[in-house]
Each structure stands twice: as structure tokens, then as C-alpha cells.
Amino acid sequence: MKRSIILVVMFFLAVLPSPAQQQPPRQVKDQILTSTALPPIRIKFADEFKHVGTLQFVLYDRAQVEQHFFVDADNEKRIKRMYWVQFEGYLPGVNAKYDYPANETVTLAGQTYLVNAESVPNVPEVVKRMPQSDVERAIKFLEAKGYRMGPSIRYERFVRLVDEAKRNEMILTYIEDASASTENAGKELLTRAQKGFTILE
Fold it and tell me: Rounded to the nearest 10 degrees, how much is the dihedral formed by the CA atoms of 113, 69, 60, 169?
């Protein structure tokens, strides 16, 4: 009798949809990335940026990460420009919060984002120094899809803390191939970064 009850319970656990199956928290359709929580937001990307996939993992046993990639590449799948959107939150039981110096900010759709720009002259070297990082995982994911990133890049990052406890964040990063471009960084990079996406709400 006891065995029968266990089998019935296991059956229902197998057939009942999980919360994630019932209502996916984030999805992409018609160039629009929709998140229903942490934060609720809709971001539309320009048509030249193709959504090439989503990656989920636990980072350093501390935080849950979900990454989305929108890529503008040439015919040989060398990445010219891309947007990388990352939703990240500390796991229960991890006593930590996100803390960034607010050196520069921009307002997008009524929300404040911390922004910073950097150049990376040697991408392979940086990846080598950061095993199992979100950066290494992202690049390996793109490579598995056949895409190649140039040896040097520049990027503009938009960071938003999405809860009062500062345990969850959203990071939108614009990346461009610096080896194939002579365009300037600085304010010009911020302007270019903002051209390819629109926050709808």
C-alpha cells in the first residue's frame, strides 16, 4: 500500500508543470525580450541584432544567472556588435548584495542605470584569467553557436539594481569589435550603445 502511494505521488510530480513551465519568466519574440519579474521589463532590439540563444547557470555557487545574446555578425559569424543582457540574483542563504559606485548614471524609461565603458585589448587573456566566470561561459556559449569574438573589444555597460535589498540586478552590455573599428569610445560609445535598443516599459 505504501509503495502504491509513493508511485502515485511520483506520477503527479512528473506530469504536473513546474512554475517555470507554467509561466516562463523571460522570453524573446519579434526582437523583444520580455521579463515578468526582477525586473518586469520589455526591451526591443534593432532588427540587425539576432537573438542567438539563452544561457542559464549558477555562478560560483552564489548567484543564479540568465544570459541573452543579440548579435550582429558578418557572413563568417565574426561578431561586429552585440548586446548581452544578464539577469543575476544571489541564491537564498548567500549573505551578499550588489554594491556599485554611482560614478555615472543614465535614465532609461524612468529608471536609473549605472553606466561605465571599458576597452579590452586582449580578450583571450582576460577569459583565461577568469575560469568559470560569466564572461568565459558567455564566450564559450557563443563559440558553440559558431560565433567568433574579435581579439579586442570595447563595451558600454548599463547596470540596474532591481530590488530594495540589492540582491538582484540586470546588466545590459553593448559590445563592439575594436579591432575592426576606428570609432571613438567615451560619449560616442554610449550614444552608439543606446541606438540599438529601446526599453518599452
Answer: 20
At 16-54, the pLDDT tens digits run 444 334 445 799 999 999 999 999 999 999 999 999 999
Edge-to-edge strands of the sheet including 111-120?
A: 50-59, 63-73, 79-90, 168-177, 153-161, 111-120, 105-108
122: number of Cβ within 10 Å: 11
Predicted model pTM: 0.86
Q: Which residues contact 187 (CB under 8 A, 6 or more apart)?
A: none
CA–CA separation, 118 and 186 (whole Å):
9
**pLDDT value for 39:** 96
- Determine how many CB atoms are found less than 10 A away from the CB of residue 39: 15
Cα 200 to chain centroid, rounded:
18
For the chain, the domains span 23-199
Q: Which positions ≥6 away from 169 have C-beta within 8 Å?
A: 87, 88, 89, 98, 159, 160, 161, 162
